[in-house]
Every structure is written in structure tokens, then in C-alpha cells.
Design a protein that fits this description.
With 394 residues, the protein is α/β, with parallel strands linked by helices. It folds into 2 domains: 225 residues, Type I PLP-dependent aspartate aminotransferase-like (Major domain) (Aspartate Aminotransferase, domain 2, 3-Layer(aba) Sandwich); 132 residues, Aspartate Aminotransferase, domain 1. The protein contains 15 helices and 12 strands. The strands form 2 sheets. It has a 7-stranded mixed β-sheet, with helices on both faces. A 5-stranded mixed β-sheet has the order 8-9-12-11-10. Helix 5 links the parallel strand 2 and strand 3. Helix 3 runs parallel beside helix 10 and helix 11 packs parallel to helix 15. The protein binds pyridoxal-5'-phosphate.
């Protein structure tokens, strides 16, 4: 069977699985730190290339390997390297591809942890960075310097939902011999495949849609470039040690098996809720990729299969009106994180992005009152009723 021709759901369910000696339907949890050998010859052969054999679970483990193969297949990559969290993957790849004296360009709005790495850690290691506006790609090209090594973007970005045209960025980057990395967490591989546009690597916070149930922390770097994958595995994974645990990989595999149906429902629920929010006069602005009012609607249609499960909006009346709305919600939970079965709301300026100074937040388009909603898998009508009563809509 040609696995390239299989659909997303089939790939998620079957990719990366090998029959074990008992014929277990579900890939077993190999809860072992080490692996033994029958001879010194076998041991030396395995340890000669840690990346290619099971010798120590800080580098490779059969359960984690199965998860990596599944995720790589869904992201259309040759392979993946799993880490202990999304931040493990982000620092794992950034500190692998960037060295002292290098320069990197990051999209303006992004996950605050990534922002903190660029502002708090890069200077200590002699790495320079600037931000770019995803809606002004001429300025992005002009910002490329002789020592620019990487353009890194999130699309849609956390929390603003501003999108970047991956195809256009890759064209610019190729002209200058610069790498492109994409944090594909918000879109998920169901909605967007950045590697198809020529991105050099993708990162996922597996904690979110891939895991899907709010019960794990995980991350991964996915790429078509074997050199990147090998250097991550034998570099930051092996030596920084932010390794994915076998039990986490088991839950992430289970998450992947239902990713297609979950993403379909996240897409459908979020569009309905975004349309409702837009129709309410208690809401000042809404940003959702597949809303026709989205200034980047055409790009969203080109780059995403569905609009995803994330919405941002501002309640009329600003910060206090937004807080009142959030406190009035009954079904939707006030919590950071996203991609779970439960609908979660958070106020970026006071919760996820509070460590970023106000001027920087504002420059990135993050208003104080901005509410980010991760639409879950409940019945859309129940969520709309909850939002209605919290807003005081009739
Ligand atoms: C877009 C994005 N990337 C990366 C991360 C970091 O992932 P983790 O919490 O798994 O370290 C997050 C966390 O919220 C995120 O929203």
C-alpha cells in the first residue's frame, strides 16, 4: 500500500506502528530507561549510532519512536524528534540552528515563552534577533542581514490570530539562503502543513491539539531535513535532556488517533461561535481565520483546511467588561493552554502574555482586554448559550 495516498485520519491511526510479538493492537508503553544486549559486539554496534538504535531512552525509545513516526507522517515530514514540552522543542531547535553571532527574525506576536527566549536568553549567548510584521513582507525581506540564519513564525499567531503567508516567506528566505521555522501549534497538521510550502522545520506543542485532552505536556520538531533531525536528537535532546516520557508518547499516540475527528469538530464549533460573537453588539472585534470579515480571509482559505479552534475577541467596554464576561461564564473554563476537549478562555495580557512588557504587547497587537478562546468539543449550541448569558445578550 502506498502510504502517501492515505488520508489524514487513516495516517494518524496506522502510521508508525509495527506488530509486536503478541500482536497488541495498541502500541505498548516501553517503560524502560535502558536496553540490554546479548554481546559486547551488539552493544558496541548500537552505541556506535545512538540515533538509529534503541540503547538509552534519553535518545530513542520504541513508544516515543512510534509517536514521532505518526506525527512526522501527519506533518508531511521525513521524521520528528519528540521533546518533553513545546518549549523543550522550541529551545531544542533554536539552540541547535543558531549560534553566537547569528541573527534571527521572529513574527511580532507569538507565544510568550518563545518571546522570553529571544529577549532573556539570546543576548546571553550572543544571538541577535528582531521582529517582523507578517503583513509587511517587503519589510521582512529588507530586515534580512548577512548573518540572518532563521525566520521563525507562528500562524495563526498566539494570541492575535494574525497569519503569515508561509509560501511567500519561504520564497523570500530561499533568495537569501535563510531557514524558515513554523510553530504550527494553533493550526495543527490537520489544517496546515508548513513543510509542503518548503519550511525547513515545524514545531508542535503536543500539549495542545495533538494530545487533545489536557493531560500531557509534550513537544516535537518535525522536518524533511535529516541533518536537522539528527542534530536535534544527538544534540539538544540527548544533552539538554528534555525528553518525552514513554507514557506521554502513549497518550500522544492515542490523541493522534482521534485528531481528524476532533479537528473537524473544533473547526465547526469555532466558526459558529466566531459568527455568533460577531453578531453581538456587546463584542467590539473578533478575529477568526475563516470569518469573512478577517482581513486575511483569502490567506486563511489558501493556507488552512479549516479555521481551527482558536478565536480572539475584545468585549465592548474593554478590560473590565471582558473580565466580567469571563467571570460570568459557566461552561467555559478560565484557564491557560488550548486544544482541549473543554472550552478554555484566557486574557492574554493578564495571563499567558503577562511577562511581556505592556509597550511590547501593544506593538504586537495584544490589547489589555483581548480574550483568547480555545473552543472545545462541547455542543456548539450549549457554548453559544453560555456566551449569551455571560454577555447578557437576549
Ligand atoms: C503557540 C505555542 N507554542 C508553544 C507553546 C509552548 O508549549 P508547551 O506549553 O507545551 O511548552 C505554547 C503554549 O501555550 C503555544 O501556545
Amino acid at each position: 500500500m502506498n502510504n502517501n495516498k492515505l488520508g489524514f485520519a487513516t495516517t494518524g491511526i496506522h502510521a508508525g506502528e509495527a506488530k509486536d510479538e503478541y500482536g497488541a493492537l495498541v502500541p505498548p508503553i516501553y517503560q524502560t530507561s535502558t536496553f540490554y544486549f546479548d554481546s559486547t559486539y551488539d552493544a558496541a554496534r548500537a552505541c556506535d549510532d545512538f540515533a538509529k538504535s534503541f540503547a538509552y531512552s534519553r535518545i530513542t525509545n520504541p513508544t516515543v519512536d512510534c509517536f514521532e513516526k505518526k506525527l512526522a507522517a501527519l506533518e508531511h515530514g521525513k521524521g520528528a524528534v519528540a521533546y518533553a514540552s513545546g518549549m523543550g522543542a522550541i529551545t531544542g531547535i533554536l539552540f541547535m540552528v543558531l549560534s553566537s553571532g547569528d541573527h534571527a527574525l521572529f513574527c511580532k506576536a507569538k507565544y510568550s515563552g518563545t518571546e522570553d527566549i529571544t529577549t532573556d536568553f539570546f543576548p546571553r549567548f550572543g544571538i541577535q534577533s528582531d521582529t517582523f510584521n507578517p503583513t509587511d513582507l517587503d519589510a521582512l525581506e529588507a530586515a534580512i542581514r548577512p548573518n540572518t540564519k532563521l525566520i521563525y513564525l507562528e500562524t495563526p499567531a498566539n494570541p492575535t490570530m494574525v497569519m503569515t503567508d508561509i509560501e511567500e516567506v519561504v520564497k523570500i528566505a530561499k533568495r537569501h539562503g535563510v531557514m524558515v521555522g513554523v510553530d504550527n501549534t494553533f493550526a495543527s497538521p490537520y489544517n496546515t502543513n508548513p513543510l509542503d510550502y518548503g519550511a525547513d522545520f515545524v514545531i508542535q506543542s503536543v500539549t495542545k491539539y495533538i494530545g487533545g485532552h489536557g493531560d500531557i505536556l509534550g513537544g516535537a520538531v518535525i522536518s524533511n531535513n535529516e541533518e536537522i533531525l539528527r542534530s536535534c536528537r544527538l544534540g539538544t535532546l540527548m544533552h539538554f535532556g528534555a525528553v518525552m516520557a514513554p507514557f506521554t508518547a502513549f497518550l500522544a499516540i492515542r490523541g493522534i488517533k482521534s485528531l481528524a475527528v476532533r479537528m473537524k469538530q473544533h473547526n465547526e464549533n469555532a466558526l459558529k461561535i466566531a459568527e455568533y460573537l460577531e453578531s453581538s453588539d456587546k463584542i467590539e472585534s473578533v478575529r477568526y481565520p475563516f470569518l469573512k470579515s478577517n482581513p486575511q480571509y483569502e490567506l486563511a482559505k489558501k493556507q488552512m483546511k479549516g479555521g481551527g479552534g482558536m478565536i480572539t475577541f475584545d468585549v465592548a467596554g474593554g478590560l473590565e467588561a471582558g473580565q466580567k464576561f469571563m467571570n460570568n461564564l459557566k461552561l467555559c473554563k478560565i484557564a491557560v493552554s488550548l486544544g482541549d476537549t473543554e472550552t478554555l478562555v484566557e486574557q492574554a495580557a493578564a495571563m499567558t502574555h503577562t511577562m511581556i512588557p505592556k509597550e511590547k504587547r501593544e506593538a504586537a497587537g495584544i490589547t489589555d482586554g483581548m480574550i483568547r478562546m480555545s473552543v472545545g468539543l462541547e455542543d456548539a449550541d450549549d457554548l453559544i448559550n453560555d456566551i449569551k448569558q455571560a454577555l447578557g445578550d437576549k
